[in-house]
Amino acid sequence: MMSTTRPRAAAGISLLIATSLALTACGTGSAGSSGSSGSGNKAATEAGSSPAPAAKQVGNPLVATYDGGLYVLDGETLKVAGDLPLAGFNRVNPAGDDQHVIVSTGDGFRVLDAAGQRFTGVEFKGAKPGHVVRHADKTVLFADGTGEVTIFASKDLAKGTPATTTYTSAEPHHGVAIELADGQLVTTLGTEEKRTGILVLDKDHKKEITRSEECPGVHGEATAQGETVVVGCENGVLIYQDGAITKVKSPTAYGRIGNQAGSDASPIVLGDYKKDKDAELERPQQVSLIDTETGKLRLVDLGTSYTFRSLARGPHGEALVLGTDGKIHVIDPVAGKVTRTIPVTGSWQEPMEWQQPRPALFVRDHTAYVTDPATKKIHAIDIETGKKTASGTLPQTPNEISGVKH
Fold first, then answer.
1. pLDDT tens digit string along 160-204?
2. What single string gives the DSSP state of each residue in 331-359?
3. Is pLDDT of 306 > 70?
């Protein structure tokens, strides 16, 4: 199903109440308990309300969540420039431009003008808001509770409520979608009980090009050099390129790859790797490298564990993993080896609940930003030199971190 919606009046800034389990766990690969029901992934309107007045612009802002709100940070000094109360468990994602961040709340995606430290009033309603993907100048939202995919031009956020195109999955599920440069839509297949693979549609999102249901527990996506799409499975990955889907199997019977990080500078995708199907919480010490040119998958031993907020890519395609030893492990994806480590925080352990704070890694250009919940700090690291360029202390314990596109 494909439909097009036109811009509507902007929604207000009324705070949305969300429970701590309202959102989907990208670290677990299973949907969380339902949040308040939405009215579909459409731009919302609230009568009698308006966005907050614009504040002084913040350069290259970062956004960190805490229990009860969001901090907007100056991207250079890491000082708190704005504090926005927002009840509930909230998640943050780059919106795809140099000004905005998408905030996933209990019942929709809200647009935050991070540079202006205010919510714009634009909201895309949808139960269980999940993944946000930026690619080819488009932003794609997936609402798990409805199975709706919402697509808009990232640059249009600067104009207000953007025109959107929507596609509705056959059934609601914890999914993800990406629109390619030619308009093809790659989106997941599944139900609330079982996720099985991906579907590729033409530029009008009406005609099926290909599909694969050889991907149990499908979760997450990344795009490699040459606009090759990789999605994770419980037994490997699916690779989509040039109209064809290829299955790459894990080297172990159960080898779950649920979170990935890609780079336009590399044909190799970085993924996590879990091999204990029965673990209540597996703390993996291996990561996966998927070569989209050869179709081969290799594992790299780190000697330390990490979490779903630990994966990123450097400016030259380096694979970066923030370990529980407090160091960023820099991996040469071609050699498949850790070339160096960058100390950032003290050692830490992943909490049992995925919503609980733990150090998180966000990379923009040549800088890696790392949160340290134990000390309420955030650090900026020059990836090339490994030197700490700035540190900031936050009033409350940080959880997730994201930022605008540079």
1. 999 999 999 999 999 999 999 999 999 999 999 999 999 999 999
2. EETTTTEEEEEEE-S------SSTTS---
3. yes
In one-letter notation, the amino acid at residue 177 is A
| Whole-angstrom distance, CA of residue 113 vs CA of residue 128 | 22
Residue reference for tokens 């609940």: 353
Domain map (residue ranges) of the chain: 1-179, 306-406
Q: Where does the pLDDT of residue 55 fall: very low under 50, low under 70, confident under 90, or very high at 90 and above?
A: confident
In angstroms, the CA 263 to CA 261 distance is 7
Which residues are within 8 A (CB) of 343 and not within 5 positions of it... i.e. 6 or more apart?
326, 327
Rg (CA), the chain: 20
For residue 156, the SS3 value is helix
Which DSSP letter does residue 9 get?
P
- The string of DSSP letters for 35-96 reads -S--S-SSB---TT--PPPP-PPPSS-EEEEETTEEEEE-TTT--EEEEEE--S--EEEE-S
Domain 306-406 has CATH 2.40.128.110: no
What are the phi and psi torsion angles at 120 (to 5°)?
A: -80, -20
User: Is residue 44 predicted with pLDDT exceeding 80?
Assistant: no
Residue 261 DSSP class: E
DSSP state of 162: P
Exposed e or buried b per residue across 273-289, where buried means at least 16 C-beta atoms within 10 angstroms of its C-beta: bbbeeeeeebebbbbbb
Q: If pLDDT is split at 50, 70 and 90, which confidence band does 56 have? A: confident
